[in-house]
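This is your field. Have a critical look at both lines of this record:
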Amino acid sequence: MSGTSTAAAPFGRRGPGAEGAGANRWLVLVVLCVSLLLVAVDATVLHVAVPAVTEDLRPGAIELLWIVDIYPLVCASLLILFGTLGDRVGRRRVLLLGYALFGVASAIAALADNAQVLIAARALLGVGGAMIMPATLSILRQVFPDRRERAVAIGIWSAVAAVGAAVGPLLGGFLLEHFWWGSVFLINIPLMLISLPIGRWLLPESTGSGNGPWDVVGALMAAAGLFGVVLGVKRLGGGESPLGATTLVSLAVGIALLVGFVRRQRRRTHPLVDLSMFARPAFSTSVGCIVLAMLALVGLELIAAQYLQLVLGLSPLETGLRLLPLTIAAMAAGLAGSQLLRRFGPRVMVCSGFALTALAVVLLTGMGDHANDALLVTGFVLLGLGLETTLFGAYESMLSEAPPSQAGGAAAIGETSYQLGAGIGIALLGSVMNAAYAPGLSSVRGVPAADSAAASHSLGEAYDVAARLGGGPGAALRAAARDSFVHGLHVTLLVSAGLLLLGALAALRLPRVMECGAVPAARAEKGVPAPRDPAAAVGATSAVDA
């Protein structure tokens, strides 16, 4: 193996190859899961605090947008930079620096007295998150060299990610009921103060091959290109016109820089990211499945939250509680993932996950103007099981296919695919939702055309306009907006189901069986694709050449 590793084990044990020895690796997994939990919680915990932040800091509309979006925007942009940097200078070193930066930025955010300081603090949190996320997966890849054990570890890791995403709004709602909005950031500090010394003592240090200099120019091109693409996609998801100057420039510059980055990496003797990984069907297909899964579901999750709050009239805390079955099901699927993978193999597991998720989405088209608790619980449980099964199989196949020396780069590619899929999903499904929602408000009796146009922007705006109008016209507009939103939700669910079925078809390129042992790992380290069964190899082409 071309990578090097030194395990920082208790009782001072240090030495190459120690990363896979003894029960210490399961303690390492606990530390990595705590790291991931913090990052996942921080991505969603602010959502319920936005009204309190708005009331206290009085940010402008643009400033409020940046307060919410700057964290995922910066984090997604820097994943490849810090993932590959960890391969060169040490993954534990990058992770510990991420801990420290995350803690400092959390303190600044909690004590911010104006919008500009909070935006800067959220940006620093994004930098810290980008240092932490790929490092957790790449260290996990190093600590668990045996694929069977690694599958168990990835199942636990992904279950923790599901918990973090769901706990964020619940925790934020609880803290806001008892403290001020800054408390949603202060909770990070004690955990980071504990994680830093424990991580330094326990986590293994590992690097890649270290051949050639680190491509600083390439890293900056990737960061700037991803920033432009994610910014453009987020603007589209926020309802901006595709022909808007900022959106067009962001997308054009971002895509141009990423194309230049790919061409640069293919020319270099020692590339920042080994793009030959994409020539392996299991790797490229896994990345594509992650994008499709998030594209189909993240925008849908946002719309579902609006449905629960605005149509059914639930509070943010009640909304979070209604989504708990999804989280519990996702945890269960993550913990059972390794057993399912060994029994059924990546192809069947990911295809079945997509199909189960599509079934759940179609089932949820039964949602109407009134709550149907049995339908919601059943749909959310199936959704959690299907989504986690899909993402587990895709992440495990992607990480196992990558050479150990490229673990940081591979983890960064997976996380970037996750973020891009989420952003594109919000833009695409949000556009579908708006296209299906707006026509129903074009001719409501007694409502002026200008008010109808304002109400067509969103259900929340429609309720505001209806409250201002009052009387019969207001009630008619409110009812029409609610009915139109439910109709738009049904259309969006069906489009999402179609995307999920496309994912199931794409997953047919994954290997039929879970390959374990030293031979596949040795082949991956040398850049040679592991042997595949004939059915999996049919039609396999290089994603780079395409």
Remarks:
- Confidence is low (pLDDT under 50) at residues 1-23, 518-546.
- The first strand starts at residue 4 and ends at 6.
- The first helix runs from residue 24 to 44.
- Residues 273-513 form a domain with the Growth Hormone; Chain: A; fold (CATH 1.20.1250.20).
